[in-house]
Specification:
Keywords: Isomerase, Ligase, Pyridoxal phosphate. This is Alanine racemase. It is an enzyme of class 5 (isomerase). This protein is about 30% helix and about 25% strand. The protein is of the alpha/beta class. The chain folds into five domains: about 90 residues, MurE/MurF, N-terminal domain (Udp-n-acetylmuramoylalanyl-d-glutamate--2,6- Diaminopimelate Ligase, Chain: A, domain 1, 3-Layer(aba) Sandwich), CATH 3.40.1390.10; about 200 residues, Mur-like, catalytic domain (UDP-N-acetylmuramoyl-L-alanine:D-glutamate ligase, 3-Layer(aba) Sandwich), CATH 3.40.1190.10; about 130 residues, Mur ligase, C-terminal domain (Protein-Tyrosine Phosphatase, Chain A, Alpha-Beta Complex); about 220 residues, TIM Barrel (Alpha-Beta Barrel); about 120 residues, Lyase, Ornithine Decarboxylase, Chain A, domain 1 (Beta Barrel), CATH 2.40.37.10. Strands 17, 18, 19, 20, 21, 22, 23, 32, 35, 36, 37, 38, 39 and 40 form a 14-stranded mixed beta sheet that branches. Strands 9-10-8-11-12-13-14-15-16 form a nine-stranded mixed beta sheet. It has an eight-stranded parallel beta sheet with strand order 30-29-28-27-26-25-24-31. The structure holds pyridoxal-5'-phosphate (PLP). The site of pyridoxal-5'-phosphate (PLP) has 10 residues, from strand 31.
């Protein structure tokens, strides 16, 4: 094996920790921190890392996935299994770091480390593109740059590699020393230092000095003096240094930048001569990242001509996996960004958590630079596919084709991308999830074009990682043991349906809730198996409710009677949820109903009350706090009375999103999170702590110049008093862009500038004022995002974020991202 391979005894020795051997001698090649993502269980070592949740909690799950080697800090876990090896140590995280640092020092290769406020991942990926022809490179997967991400990245180093490129990110003082120890860089790159006052640092200088600790032992330090202003020469790291600047004297001093045709042409002074390069991107961030890469190539000894030739070929780096609608009822995950085993495992996890289709297909190219012989590599991939429930592989490339025997699942192979495309009409795709993953040179974009449904220019982008982050944000506020019901009614507040529900199921929420039976049925058909509560169970749908194992909300005696009657004579303990009215005065039982309710419930054991709940009317607002308290005590009184009348226990819940953030006393046994998952909470100041989940984008269809006396749109409502330029964009009221946004009430973002609407909003289009802006047809226009927020849009037309989100019509395509 060419993976780093350590025996479990060797590892215990490196960690100077106690080892409890209860299994065969084990050789470890993989370090695992998430019990759900296991590639090669026999060779995996699971670290019970404790974050917000105690990592020991996941040991069972890791064990059930085949792992037999563990690092724990709780002595009780040393003998849980009779066939596992367990290392006991005080600090599991530092064990992970020490082990990885040991692996780094075992190999003597040059290592480039990158830190800074922005651009780390892009610079890392671009340097990879620039240097891959000359080195066998090992690098951080995606943006693994944390206290956990760095050791996992560095652990990948093996004897095949000739260069490492790793990024490091920190959020507070004192963190960099550990990362410097693990990476032990020989070359350091500081990308930049943001102005923003970061939490966890008392000053700009302190933040800078902390970041520079990464480079204290480096041979070579690459930086811009613009970002190290305020430090003395002797405070800078590096035995030698290479500086770049656009403003002052430096080893690479940029003299001149000119945008040409979407690219940046740059001239600079280097060793007393003028040199030039072309960076194939036009935005400022890419310009800076490009200059950093340029400086790095020169500092590493490349000639100006070589550097120029390489930089020109840089390609876009996108770290996001995109889930899109495909042809023939398929879903497509598009990931042509990097084709190595760890990114493949991440993409397969995403594939695996999307259960909406019965079949999963992977289209995979040859993988490069893995440092492994083909037979080993493809055998490993074949095992991975089996474990991740992939049903079919379409392999493209001569290497994967030569190893076709390794795959036991349905498979077909093509020599190259063109031969797949030529045969495309005979390849069958229907009702399946397809992961497209190929090394850059295979140009799998051409394949995506064939199988992804053309997206109409207005799209709602949903960031699934942000959604999972928001779920965690609320979980962190819960007392141990409190369950979570996630509200996915109304297409998950407009954000999607099964895609979101699958993610929530993967993240182990306890319950989902929908408004109507239909919504519940479609979730079941998409592979959702956790309990689902239906809030408006119409009697005509009882049959379907039972058939799909949905759990009705019971809000009055009539519905309870008819549901019980409907249930077959042999039905026992069918789960139902009782809704109590504590002040909303919408649906639900009140005190006077309880006697009859209990009588009816005790008449037979056809139904069983699994939960009793109510709903807060004003949890987000201080003004209503007194009423909230009143609702809570009323709820407790009624739930107590029901409890006395039943001979079993049930779950109590009342909190919605703002209830969780503002009323910790209202958690009872479960909470119901709705809008907070999607990034809003009226109870938090400016949604602090929540991440933006949804971005609505459209494009410019046409540009027009209008004179001062001309009008724009229906009823001649729009006019630019000075004349100017109008852009027509592809979003109208039929897409959910309310007519009230017309006549300048609504604003959109284009190239970072806020521009008003002009005239009335039409059904499929509207017009915005782009006078004086450098824009062209096809340019992207943001309707809302993290900057121009839904909350701001809600203010513009005097409504609430809930309505803005849920009004986005179904014809607007949703695209999901996962990192
Ligand atoms: C929609 C809904 C919620 C969620 O409310 P948010 O304010 O979006 O968190 C909770 N409970 C019930 C009964 C609901 O209908």
């Amino acid at each position: 094996m060419t993976d780093s391979n350590y025996s479990i005894e060797n590892i215990a020795g490196i960690l100077q920790a106690k080892l409890f051997v209860q299994n065969q001698p084990a050789l470890i090649s993989k370090l695992v921190i998430d019990s759900r993502s296991v590639i090669d269980p026999e060779e995996s070592l699971f670290f019970a890392l404790s974050g917000k949740r105690d990592g020991h909690y996941y040991i069972d799950h890791a064990y059930s996935n085949g792992i037999r080697n563990f690092v724990v800090s709780d002595e009780n876990y040393t003998r849980t299994y009779s066939d596992a090896n367990v290392i006991l140590i005080d600090d599991v995280l530092s064990a992970l770091q020490i082990l990885s640092g040991y692996n780094r020092k075992y190999y003597h290769l040059p290592v480039l480390a990158i830190t800074g406020s922005n651009g780390k991942t892009i610079v890392k990926e671009w340097l990879y593109q620039l240097l891959a022809a000359d080195y066998n490179i090992v690098r951080s997967p995606k943006s693994f740059n944390s206290q956990i991400g760095v050791p996992l990245s560095v652990w990948q180093i093996n004897e095949m590699h000739t260069l490492g490129i790793f990024e490091a990110g920190i959020s507070r003082e004192g963190e960099m020393d550990a990362l410097a120890e693990i990476i032990a860089p020989t070359i350091g790159i500081l990308t930049n230092i943001g102005e923003a006052h970061a939490e966890g640092f008392s000053s700009h200088t302190e933040k800078l000095l902390e970041k520079l600790k990464l480079f204290k032992e480096t041979e070579l330090f690459i930086y811009s003096p613009e970002y190290t202003a305020g430090l003395d020469e002797n405070e800078l790291p590096g035995k030698t240094r290479f500086s770049w600047s656009t403003k002052q004297k430096a080893d690479l001093q940029v003299l001149f930048v000119e945008p040409i045709d979407g690219r940046n042409y740059i001239r600079a002074l280097y060793k007393g001569e003028e040199i030039e390069c072309l960076i194939p991107f036009s935005d400022n961030a890419s310009l800076e990242n490009g200059i950093i890469c340029w400086a790095t190539l020169l500092a590493m000894g490349y000639t100006a001509a070589q550097a120029d030739a390489n930089l020109e070929k840089l390609t876009l780096v996108s770290m996001r996996l995109e889930l899109k609608n495909g042809i023939n009822q398929c879903s497509v995950i598009d990931d042509s960004y990097s084709a190595d085993i760890s990114s493949l495992a991440i993409a397969l996890d995403f594939l695996n958590l999307q259960n909406q289709h019965p079949k999963r297909t992977l289209i995979l190219s040859d993988l490069y630079e893995t440092g492994k012989p083909d037979e080993v590599l493809y055998a490993e991939i074949a095992a991975l596919l089996k474990q991740k429930n992939v049903n079919r592989i379409i392999g493209i490339g001569t290497h994967i084709s030569a190893c076709s025997e390794a795959f036991e699942i349905e498979s077909v192979f093509y020599e190259n991308t063109q031969s797949f495309i030529d045969n495309f009409p005979s390849v069958h795709f229907s009702n399946e999830t397809i992961l497209v993953k190929g090394a850059r040179r295979f140009e799998f974009g051409r394949i995506s074009k064939l199988i992804v449904q053309k997206i109409h220019d207005t799209v709602l982008e949903i960031d699934l990682n942000a959604l999972a982050g928001n779920l965690q944000f609320y979980r962190n506020k819960l007392r141990p043991g409190v369950k979570v019901m996630a509200m996915v009614k109304a297409f998950s507040y407009g954000s999607g349906s099964f895609e979101i529900a699958n993610l929530l199921q993967y993240h182990k929420v306890d319950y989902l809730a929908v408004a109507y039976t239909d919504e519940g049925i479609s979730l079941r058909k998409s592979g959702i198996s956790i309990p689902i509560m239906v809030m408006s169970p119409e009697p005509s749908a009882f049959d379907a409710i039972i058939k799909h194992n949905l759990e009705p909300e019971i809000y009055n005696l009539d519905i309870l009677r008819s549901f019980t009657t409907f249930l077959g004579e042999n039905e026992r303990n069918y789960p139902v949820h009782l809704k109590i009215d504590t002040g909303m005065h919408r649906l639900g039982f009140e005190e006077p109903d309880l006697k009859d309710l209990l009588l009816l419930l005790n008449e037979s054991d056809k139904v069983k009350v699994v939960s009793v709940f109510s709903h807060l009317v004003g949890s987000e607002d201080e003004v209503h706090d007194e009423f909230t308290t009143h609702q809570l005590s009323r709820f407790t009184a009624i739930a107590d009375e029901i409890s006395r009348g039943l001979d079993y226990t049930f779950i109590r819940h009342i909190s919605n999103t703002s209830g969780i953030s503002r009323h910790p006393e209202a958690q009872f046994d479960m909470v119901r999170i709705g809008i907070g998952l999607y990034g809003f909470d009226g109870g938090l100041k400016n949604n602090r702590g929540l991440q933006t989940v949804a971005v609505l984008k459209t494009t410019i269809t046409q540009l027009k110049h209008v004179k001062p006396n001309e009008t724009v749109g229906y009823s001649r409502k729009g006019m630019l008093s000075e004349g100017g330029t109008i852009a027509t964009v592809k979003i109208g009221y039929a897409d959910g862009y309310n007519r009230k946004f017309g006549n300048g009430n609504g604003k959109m973002l284009i190239k970072g500038k806020l521009v008003p609407t002009v005239g009335v909003i039409c059904m499929d289009m509207c017009m915005i004022d782009v006078t004086g802006l450098d824009v062209k047809t096809g340019d992207e226009v943001i309707v809302f995002n993290g900057e121009l927020t839904i909350a701001e849009l809600a203010r513009q037309i005097e409504t609430i974020p809930y309505e803005i989100l849920t009004n986005i019509s179904q014809r607007v395509k949703r695209v999901y991202f996962y990192e």
